[in-house]
Amino acid sequence: MSGSGNAAGPDRLARRLGVGDAVVIGLGSMIGAGVFAAFGPAAAAAGAGLIVGLVVAAVIAYCNATASAQLAAAYPTSGGTYVYGRERLGHWWGFVAGWGFVVGKTASCAAMALTFAAYAVPGPWWVQRIVAVLGVLGLTTLNYRGVTRTAQATRVLVACSLTTLTVLVAGIWLGGHASPDRVGGWDALTAGGAYGILQAAGLLFFAFAGYARVATLGEEVRDPARTIPRAIPLALAITVVIYVVVGLSALFAAGPELLARAAAPLVATVQAAGVGGLAPLVRIGGALASLGALLALIAGVGRTTLAMARNHDLPGWLAAVHPRYRIPHHAELAVAAVVCVLVLAADLRGVIGFSSFGVLVYYAIANASAFTQPADQRRWPRALNVLGLLGCVVLVAALPWTSVVAGVVMFGLGLAGRAVVLRRRA
């Protein structure tokens, strides 16, 4: 499974990404998902306590990031924790991780497509759904041209997003309406209770999961043993700083109640801060950030699907690699088709919770896998793996009950399906 050379056979992907490309792909996944989509549901769960939930989610995300980086350096191939679980814990655990990632991140793709449409087209819901489908189809076409183009496009989208957020934060504080009084004092941080804070952390975890995209692109990263352990923590650290600054600014400008009600929380924030003239810019930035996240998500889900198909855990047709562009074209087309169906039928807040369920299970297995690595593969202490595993389990249990039920049903279907296939093969 290891090896970091640049040579590639006809069924292998090409190693073209450096540290900068990998960091940008992670940032594109996280920033679009978190800043423009997750603060609203988190405020509904915990009020001002969403900031505490953000810190909890960041700590658990750091544990997961170190586990992923350590594993990806040892197993530099496409598939992420699906591969690590198979190698360290056994094939069934690998399947659970891969199924959780594919299901959860397909839901994330739908969430990002819907977020893009909500910011880009503040019109009728049916128009937004059509625009969301067009966004999925357009980015799938871009991904089809190869991973280097994906990294280049994501770099542009991340730059636009960061510029927008910088202007937004400056406008909030220069507008003169932002004040800590809108939060309600220190007691407001715990008004939602422990359950509300943990639920907010679980929902905000959805925003941190973009660093996994670097690991799932392991077969396309140059010198993965060096590149991946540097890129994953760096992308996460940059994102945490951005989230804290924007989250506090939004709370001080709009207050938790308005954030919880708003379909586009950052648009509501600039309006409450007295700088409504920035609303068009925020809409453009939200649309571009969501496109950046969706672009990287499609690439990541497609490559985990490829890895599962190579091992016959999904139909073999999905394992095809394009002879010219060297991307898993069948897998990406299949993912795009499913996302388009979800976009036409899903609710944004519901798919965020459902996505968090699948991804938290995925990272629980990542931490368990990293815990078993020998000393010569370790870069971080095992205590972080234990903390990450326990944190993922707690956040899964704290998610909205509808998300938990849907997640349990989906995992049950996946495990039952695999059991039937294995029995027929035997």
Automatic annotation (TrEMBL):
Q: Tell me the membrane topology, using the record's own terms.
A: Multi-pass membrane protein
Compartment list: Cell membrane
Recorded hits in Pfam families, A to Z, give:
AA_permease_2 (PF13520)
Q: Does the keyword NADP apply?
A: no
Keyword annotations: Cell membrane, Membrane, Transmembrane, Transmembrane helix
Q: Which domain of life is it from?
A: Bacteria
Q: For this UniProt entry, which segments traverse the membrane?
A: 22-44, 50-75, 96-120, 126-144, 156-176, 188-211, 232-254, 284-306, 327-346, 352-371
Entry GO MF terms: transmembrane transporter activity
Output the Gene3D superfamilies linked to this UniProt entry: Amino acid/polyamine transporter I
Q: Main localization of the protein?
A: membrane
List the GO terms this entry assigns under cellular component, sorted alphabetically.
Answer: plasma membrane
The answer to whether the entry has keyword Cell membrane is yes
- What name goes with this protein? APA family basic amino acid/polyamine antiporter
- Source organism (scientific name): Actinopolymorpha cephalotaxi
- Organism classification, top ranks? Bacteria, Bacillati, Actinomycetota, Actinomycetes, Propionibacteriales
